[in-house]
Request: fold
Amino acid sequence: MRPVTWVRALVPLLGVILVAVGCGSGGASNAGSVKVVAVWSGQEQASFMAVLKPFEDSTGIKVQYESTRDEDAILRTRVAAGNAPDLAAAPSPALLTQFAQQGKVKALNDAVNMNALSASTSSGWIKLGEPLSDGKLYQIFSWAAVKGLVWYDPKNFSAKSYTVPKTWQELLTLQDTIKGNGTPPWCIAVASGGAADGWPASDWLKEIVLSQAGPTVYDKWVAGTQTWTSPEIKAAFQTFGTILGPNDANVYGGKNTILATQFGDVGTPMFASPPKCYMLNQASFITTFFTSAVPSLQAGTDFTFFPLPDINTSFSGAHVVAGDSWSMFNDTPQARQLIKYLTTAPAQDIWEAWRQARRQQAGQP
Amino acid sequence: MSKLSAQILVNTQIAKYDATDNMPTDMRNAAWKGLLKFISNQANLDAILADLDKTQKTAYTAA
Reply:
């Protein structure tokens, strides 16, 4: 699997939803410009410019890009001053909500084919862009993914007749079966150096809180109004504990290995022969680490994934997600054309290759 | 696999952004550290959670 295939998977979701606007005859000198604000600078900015170049070449529209370290701060300032960019990487959920309440950000509903969006995308994704829950869409993704995926080697599974668990109970049964056969079911690695140490474990916790306690508790937890000692959050830690097992015996190498191993090296024991573990939980970026450690690995044959099963079926299909999304502050034909371009396949191919490089440089997703 | 990936996206009925990314920095760092402590000693959970509550009281007002 090449990184771009992930993006191709999104094309049916996003590529069809935007209505073509403007005549877009290439190279017109009066094609105008579009002001864009996002967080990327330096090498990242150069990569973003590479994403934009085919758009500028084909439309003649000039993108005036401004980089900021603090997206929320600059948007607050510029929106207040009446000098908002036309398009910006979407601000934090809290600020997007505020802008929507104040009418400072443009709804995308008439720039987007909402019927096609609803037909091709789950309501969960659309709701992320509807902070006021009033049917008005204020952001659209150019890249999106579910974070928590369980990776495994299908050859290892079939050698032992293990099947992909469809329920949380089946997952717990599977880990007991694997352990009973003499191998720890999981590989977990949480080291990433410095202050970010431990973030990969937080990916487990977040997915458990959302799937076990539901979105309302999750939102309160983010907002700081759900205490950590509350039964729901405590139960989430305890569920993570059932993955770790008593004395962390469900995990290859136990706590010492978990804490000492760099997150990117998490998969290496799984690809040993015989395997030292059978499953790991990580976002899709981890595949670049798999193949840089073991170049012979083939996606689909040597590794594939399943989503973490629902813990509480009242919250079926609940997942922590990530993505790059855009909001429009001035409704211009150029802004609409750019938003359309950023959600097309060629832009997303460049985009995904760039994201992979960014993650590896930053040492985290 | 890309088909599987697309299917998961479509099946995602409840989507939420990364919780710790959207917590104040002090809270986020404390959460990561708390998880390291939990992995080190699961029996210490109550004390870890009580510490996180203390951070929660200050981290949000400072932000």
